Amino acid sequence: MCYFRPEIEALIGYTPGEQPQAGKFIKLNTNESPYPPSPRVTRAIQQAAEAGLMRYPDPMGNAFRRRAAEVLGVEPDWILCGNGSDDILTIVTRSLVGRGQLLRLPYPSYVLYKTLAQIQGAWADEVRFRPDWTLPDTFAAPSSELRLAFLPNPNSPSGTVVSRDAMGELAARLPCPLLVDEAYVDFAPANCLDLVRENDRVLVSRTLSKSYALAGLRFGFLVGQPHVIAKLANVKDSYNCDALAIAGATAAIDDQDWLRENVARINATRVRLSAGLEQLGFSVVPSQANFVWCQHPARTSRELYERLKQNRVLVRYMDYPAWGDGLRISVGTDEQIEACLALLRTMV
Amino acid sequence: MCYFRPEIEALIGYTPGEQPQAGKFIKLNTNESPYPPSPRVTRAIQQAAEAGLMRYPDPMGNAFRRRAAEVLGVEPDWILCGNGSDDILTIVTRSLVGRGQLLRLPYPSYVLYKTLAQIQGAWADEVRFRPDWTLPDTFAAPSSELRLAFLPNPNSPSGTVVSRDAMGELAARLPCPLLVDEAYVDFAPANCLDLVRENDRVLVSRTLSKSYALAGLRFGFLVGQPHVIAKLANVKDSYNCDALAIAGATAAIDDQDWLRENVARINATRVRLSAGLEQLGFSVVPSQANFVWCQHPARTSRELYERLKQNRVLVRYMDYPAWGDGLRISVGTDEQIEACLALLRTMV
Question: Would the CB atoms of A84 and B218 count as touching at under 8 Å?
Answer without folding.
Answer: no
